[in-house]
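Q: Entry one of two.
A:
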Amino acid sequence: MIRTVAVLTLLTVVGGTNVSTERRDVDADRQAILALEQLWLNANDAPTLDRLLADDFKHPVVTGQFLTKEEHIRWMVAHPPPATRKARFEQLDVRIFGDVAIAGGVVVTEGLTPAPFRTIFTDVFVRRNGRWQSMLKRTTWWRTSINVVRRFETDRRTILFQRCWVESGAS
């Protein structure tokens, strides 16, 4: 009886240690991905993006192209957002599957259009040589945000048209 209790106690302690060590690693990985996502949210410089993105990174965009790491970095550096842009995570979930992590959520962006707009994203990270990097990014406009951006573009075109009309003396 004492031997059985001792063996069960030992198995519980050893099993509990393995589980808690594994849990701690998953939590550390989740925190690492959350930190990378936060860094990426406002990254516009080539060195930061180079560290964040894996060499085989792909980013499918609305034109039907799949941007490579180099193309993505080149575009981001060439088109930095204005200083008025403020982005934050409304939702961010990270799931860890060994050396693969999937982060997804909603980003709210303000300061680019008259009203805030939302995008839904999924990022796939892979851990290679002890380092997490993104290998895939997918972003989609939130349906109501499409209307905000369209309305802003329409208003802007109308204002430009009206300005040209007045300046031309046609009014």
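Q: Entry two of two.
A:
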Amino acid sequence: MILLSYRRILLSTCLLLAPRVPVWSQQTYQSPPADLVKILEAPANPITSISPNRQWILVTVSDPRTVTIREMADSAYYLAGSKIRANPDSRVDNIGIRSGTVSSVDGKVERMLQVPAGGRIGSTAWSTSGNQLAYTTISDGTMSVEILDPATGRSRRISGSGLSGRIRDLDWSRDGKNLAFTATTPAGTSAWVADVTSGAARRLTPPTLNLTVARGNIVDDTGCSWVNGKAPLICRIWPTNRGAPPKLADVPTGVVVQESYGRSAPARTYEYLLQSPTDEALFDYYFTDQIVLVGLDGKVTPIGQTGIHTRVSPSPDGNYLLVETAQRPYSYQVPLGAFPSRTEIWNLSAVHGSANSVRPDRIPLRRHHLGVAEHCISRRSTLTRRQTARLDDRPLGSERRYSKTGLGPQRRRSLFRPRNMGGCAGFNDRSIRSAALE
């Protein structure tokens, strides 16, 4: 005879009387109806690119701009107005340019870019002369680099020992003999250079390029660039003493205090701002870089101190760098582009001058307004070697503006001067106004 306890009988009764709830297994993502898929995957409008010599026209048709589920699921931080990935972005998705056609301006010659079967083209880049076109191809999860000569139609592939991963940031040297690019693997991002004539590529740096900078989080910079169109390359790498990333505290160590100093001011609304000392530590860890010169022989020469360099621009003669570095205290109200900064001119061995930017909480809301103390640094487009080393002794108040034509001898004076304007021209462009730093 089997004796059942009162507790067992009650439990059995409850299970029998309980409502039956269906148990669902985890559902996978489903595809929408075919008609909706056609709409969502329709190609984007064609994009036209004219060669620098204005002899060729490149027309490309790309996939619509989309964000994959894998990309959304990747580990990321949201710091100082930017979304950054904690891991190297080495994935190769079959998304890009579907077709590309190079035609002569007179319409007599037409060349098709070689798109792999079922693959895509990643990016394109004209040489400085406009006689060659470099582009990356995507096929079966791998990427390669192709060089096209539109005049002859001859195409050749760039190859190199150990070249793999996601290839981006195509950058031609001025003479068209070398092509620099980056390759990102799970280990990190490295700089490569290819000899265009032979088609041989070699790696210049270990996978230590600052991937945060290289992915456009800072002034849309690619991380490496030629100095005035020739070797060496200016790159930004992780500091040698970088160490492990800061550990995120499960319990806050204190409260976050922000003071207004009794002064009211209008403010815009930004996303992904810093919110705590932990965010500041992560910001320092992922955005700090070391500026280096990289020769074609792979020699890496550090320049200056480590820092969060928001701008690194070479002078026309390649002897100077204009370097802008973010400074503390970091703001919790504005993104990195409005942080206090220090702008310096380096002659690749020393600092020639510097200027500090205005505090972000004093910038009015008017579009492009820089404030009274904001400094915009630019350079003159025509310099001589002797004049580059000379600083103008005129007071700031005597600064004048010149047109681009009909300039007198005063145009050839080399000077760098803080200036107050409604926009900031680049150090390596054709800007007119410039001055001496104090």
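A: Comment on entry two: The two ends are 103 Å apart (CA to CA). The first helix runs from residue 6 to 17.
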